[in-house]
Amino acid sequence: MKSSNDCRGFSSKRIFFVCLLSLLLFASNASADLYSYNLMYASPELNGGKTFNYGMVTVNLTSQDHATITFKSRGAYLLENRLGVQVNAFLFGVTNLTEGSFVAQKNFSGFGDFNASFSGLSDLTSYSFNLTRKSYLNDKGHWTSAAQVLRINDWGYQAISQIDPETGNSGYAAASTYFMGRGVQSMSAVPLPGAVWLLGSGLVGLAAIRRRRAA
Q1: What are the strands, taking DSSP E only, across the chain?
Q2: Where is the signal peptide (predicted)?
């Protein structure tokens, strides 16, 4: 007959491994992948067309078919009226608009067409929306990284926004990785499953060491 101490030890071990397994299974469906672009390339109306960091566009890939796009202005600049991105998908949906309305493909003078555009924005410091990729005929691919969510349009740009400076004329600023790669601000890919598996392995190792010492 087992002692009460043996039963308590057995129960504690079962609870530990059940919690660990639950953590690993839950984390296998989670990921965080970020990719950012600077709005650097200006139209002549904005700051004389000079290259400058007017703002940033960040892509947050939350799953293989879902991403959140966030525009943020820098310094004294504001987002005004219109902005757009070139989505890397034949079919996609747009939801969770913080302001304005989705107007589909639009041309931005000097920067070409963008297949996801928005209008009706007041002066904002940030703007975000969600993208959902949809399967269509032979296009049944998925986004495997945040860097794949957007692509360059025929003019070499991935994102654009109308920028309202504190002084001077309003104009457009765009992001690109096509021209000298200067449009890329940062990339931070953090796959949570890998991190959690590493944590789980460490916990298992500690449990094994503790058991050996107890023996």
Answers
A1: 32-39, 41-42, 55-63, 66-73, 78-85, 91-95, 101-108, 112-124, 126-134, 159-164, 171-175, 184-190
A2: 1-32
Edge-to-edge, what's the strand order for the sheet holding 184-190? 91-95, 126-134, 66-73, 55-63, 32-39, 184-190
54, 121: one domain:
yes
Distance in angstroms (rounded) separating the CA atoms of residues 31 and 62:
6
Q: Is residue 164 helix, strand or coil? A: strand
pLDDT, tens only, 20-73? 444 444 444 445 689 999 999 999 999 999 999 999 999 999 999 999 999 999
Residues 167 and 210 both lie in one domain = no
138 and 208 within one domain: no
Instruction: Decide if pLDDT at 188 tops 50.
Output: no
SS3 sequence, 46-79? CHHHCCCCCEEEEEEEEECCEEEEEEEECCCCEE
CA separation for the pair 134, 30 (Å, rounded): 20
42 DSSP β-pair partners: 173
Same-domain status, 38 and 143: yes
